[in-house]
Amino acid sequence: MCYDELDPTEKKIFLDIACFFGRCKRDYLQRTLDLEERSGIDRLIDMCLIKIVENEIWMHDVLLKLGRDIVVHENVDPRKRSRLWDAKDVYRVLREQVTGKVESISLNLSETKEIDLSPAAFEGMNNLRLLKFYYPYPREER
């Protein structure tokens, strides 16, 4: 687990996977990355930070927590973090003035109340590169 040994692009991919893509299809993740970043996936595999199981990205829960902790420790103020996934933090950021620090937002809409998604909510987000609002599919009972 050598996060510090990763280059900036690889760190970015590691944090994206930990915060948003911990259990997704490799093809889906690659569509969100540019060509330079796609090679970073292989480096994370080589360093055993992720693995591919049946074409699905898999990151151990400890590493998921590590990645999220790294982002949370960027700043106590969620408006000054690079990635947001917690519904309360997303609400706060969309309600208040935002700096250009926020790069990615993922929001499970089943965890929210009504939210103002007017274009004005995103005005200060000059570095926003990923915006994902979703309802999770219910898991089948076995």
UniProtKB/TrEMBL annotation:
One Pfam family, short name please?
WHD_ROQ1
Q: Which UniProt keywords apply?
A: Repeat
Which GO BP terms apply?
A: defense response
Question: In terms of domain of life, where is this protein from?
Answer: Eukaryota
Q: Does the keyword Repeat apply?
A: yes
Q: Is the Transferase keyword given for this protein?
A: no
Pinpoint the Disease resistance protein Roq1-like winged-helix domain residues.
Answer: 9-72
Please give the InterPro entries that the UniProt record associates with this protein: Disease_R_plants, WH_DNA-bd_sf, WHD_ROQ1-like
Q: What is this protein called?
A: Disease resistance protein Roq1-like winged-helix domain-containing protein
Organism of this sequence: Salix udensis
